Amino acid sequence: MEGSSHKLQTLSLLCAVTALSIATGLVQRPSVAGDYARSLGSLHINLHIKSNQGKLTWIMDSPNRGAKSIPWNDFQFDGQTFSAAVHAANSTWMGMVDAESNHLTGPGNQQQSFELKVNRDTSQPTSKPSPVDGVWLGTLAAGGVSLRIQIEVNSDSTGHQHCTLDSLDQHAMDLKCENVKFSTPDFSFDVPAVKGHWKGTIASDGKSLNGTWTQAHPLALNFSRQKVGIASLVIEDDPAMAPVQVTDLQAVLEKDLARALSSGQLAPSTGAGVTIGLVQHGIRRIFSYGATQPDSIFEIGSITKTFTGLILAQLVEQNSVNLSDPVRVLLPPGTVSKPIGAEITLGDLATQHSGLPRLPTNLNPKDKKNPYADYTTVELYAFLAKQGLREPANAGFLYSNLGFGLLGHALSLHAGMSYETLLKEQITDPLGLHDTTISLSPEQKKRFAQGHDPNHNRTEAWDLSVLESAGAIRSTASDMLSYLEANLHPEAVQPETRSEAARTLTAALKLQHELRADAGGGMRIGLGWLWEPEFKSYWHNGGTGGFSSFAFFMPDDDCAGVVLFNTTLGPSGSFADRLGEHIRQRLLGKPAVSLSD
Q1: Could you tell me the pTM of the whole model?
Q2: Of the candidates 484, 582, 589, 573, the residue with the CA atom closest to the CA atom of residue 253
């Protein structure tokens, strides 16, 4: 289940532009030329200032965005103070250069004010490269998805080694390595930004690195030496237009998707199809492109987590559980020992602050095309008994399919019914979501879209077994719109049943929306839903072996949408994410990420 980890990379400061043009200005202090770097939380900024025949070129990389060669415009520099702008990102920066030209410091603005200081990169390459110096490329297979991983290793004149990691297919570039260690033949490094670690050895011929990548659990990751590195795909924005109304968006998208429909992600030869649902001020539109229909049923992947978060909110409003309850007490007695100190709570799981890894380490699928199908309660309890449920000190945001799988499983045990039955009782029956389910009826199977892998080969549907509450739900655009409308206007919900669940639904939706913790990249999180300040939008995405999805709702603008795509993540990342982001930008009249491949 692809979740939000790769989306966090797109929402940081200076986030929206790439281009090949350059900005120039008169050189007053040639020594200012050089390379500068700065990390702002999870955001990494690299500034390159070059001097060419009396003029300066300022170019910035925003690696978390997967963007390089961002040009600075309107550049002014008088030898001590500077000012510059990035037009396409509506961002400005001005400040001072210190006497030694080692620091550039000053205030900036991009929808909100910030203070930025970049430091000169003073490291110098060594004259005698290490055996591991160079560019290396490998492929990481996880959860039915293959990701190309590239590392670049170099040594400085002090003998220290440095490296950066690129997840090319997720456009996460220049992630900094720490604790880089090499002693022939052993090589290892950490990547703190994703809490990852690689350890292995260099082959005797120096042409490969063979070892294991450990993030949530260990996976084989071998690298081969490359002559040159692969640059991430740079996606330029389409120009802004006046805010588009939902009634007009289909015609706009037909133009914006023209290349994708003829030769890209939605070309006839791919078997791909996308169904889009939109609502604005109560006006709904549902339409499809490619091989799917408006009433097609899709796997929604990790958008399931928002349903699980709402189930939790429902049970809280019904005084059945509290957010502060330890999850351990909802499990069968003796499953996990009571830890010393703080315990992981239901609220920790729902806000992705439990400290649990993305996946359990004992997930070893017999069928990698259906990787969760044979992971049972027995394996889950064995993992938990070994892992424990102690809450780590200062646990930060760490996206965990395991965490949400455990949350739904524990709530189901507490309620004395299956997760699917609990979903039906608490959400889908009251809201009348008759096509939102896990098990499909014979009639629904006829409408279930055929999923595809990144190479457009047909895939099997996923069965998530004990972790189903993290990503097993299937739904239609129509049902998802009804769900999103309930989120837009909790006070206006008119349940179709008269159950206790119907009575508490409005309050539960409001409780779920309360922002409780940081989620990286300036975002916040409620009980499952992520909050993005740039769009004032709640959102979540999802991905399985054959599907990808993106859902959002923006209360201030009274609009919401869902993108359901019958193809998983591909070489250019998540097309569903790009399309969902593009739609939000069109609705708000902003420059829109291009949909061309």
Answers
A1: 0.71
A2: 582
